């Protein structure tokens, strides 16, 4: 395996396979993460409807933030399903717990404190793992992907939702917080996944679905 397959640093920034890794949004930016206008162009319910999440499923929301998608997933999997909400920042996990309690969903939302190298999901536990605007910030993609691959059941799916780098311009969005399909395929298919579906119906984002191989 060549040096290109490992994360590396250059002038204080991290890179992987030629891609500049995005910097993590701090927990102080929770109001930005939950901004009211976000749903008007990300359409989270429309996005989730394409994933066919069913009652009783075990799913993970990696990079869960304050829980916007985790709460939606909890409603979809119902009382007999589970949502692992994996987040690297304790402050955001605390906000997520409060939001789950407020919405009466704390019974099936399980908070998980992640690290830069591990989402800390149980092995062979997940039917689906969702990462919304998160993968591009992972500082050690091979380590994270290894753990996610282990956490998926044999026919489980990994879903990346990322802002399109292919679009020539996007408001208030740096290039290191966007990804192309080609780059995502390069990175994930080098780490034991295969792109099986690509949806482009969202205004600004790719929905990329990967199976483990």
From TrEMBL:
Pfam family, one: Methyltransf_31
Database matches in InterPro entries: Methyltranfer_dom, SAM-dependent_MTases_sf
Domain of life where this protein originates: Eukaryota
Occurrences of domain Methyltransferase (ranges): 55-181
Name recorded for this polypeptide: Methyltransferase domain-containing protein
Native source species: Adineta ricciae
């Amino acid at each position: 395996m060549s040096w290109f397959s490992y994360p590396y640093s250059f002038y204080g920034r991290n890179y992987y396979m030629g891609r500049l890794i995005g910097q993590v949004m701090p927990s102080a930016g929770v109001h930005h993460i939950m901004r009211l206008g976000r749903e008007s162009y990300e359409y989270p319910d429309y996005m989730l409807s394409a994933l066919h999440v069913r009652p009783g499923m075990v799913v993970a929301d990696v990079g869960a933030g304050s829980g916007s998608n985790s709460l939606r997933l909890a409603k979809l999997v119902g009382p007999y399903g589970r949502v692992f909400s994996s987040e690297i920042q304790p402050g955001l996990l605390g906000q997520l717990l409060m939001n789950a309690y407020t919405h009466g969903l704390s019974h099936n939302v399980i908070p998980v404190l992640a690290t830069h190298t591990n989402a800390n999901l149980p092995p062979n536990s997940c039917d689906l793992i969702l990462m919304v605007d998160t993968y591009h910030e992972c500082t050690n993609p091979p380590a994270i992907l290894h753990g996610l691959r282990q956490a998926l059941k044999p026919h489980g799916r990994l879903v990346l939702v990322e802002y399109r780098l292919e679009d020539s311009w996007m408001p208030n969005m740096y290039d290191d917080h966007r990804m192309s399909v080609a780059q995502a395929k390069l990175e994930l298919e080098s780490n034991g996944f295969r792109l099986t579906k690509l949806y482009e119906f969202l205004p600004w984002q790719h929905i990329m679905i990967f199976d483990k191989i």
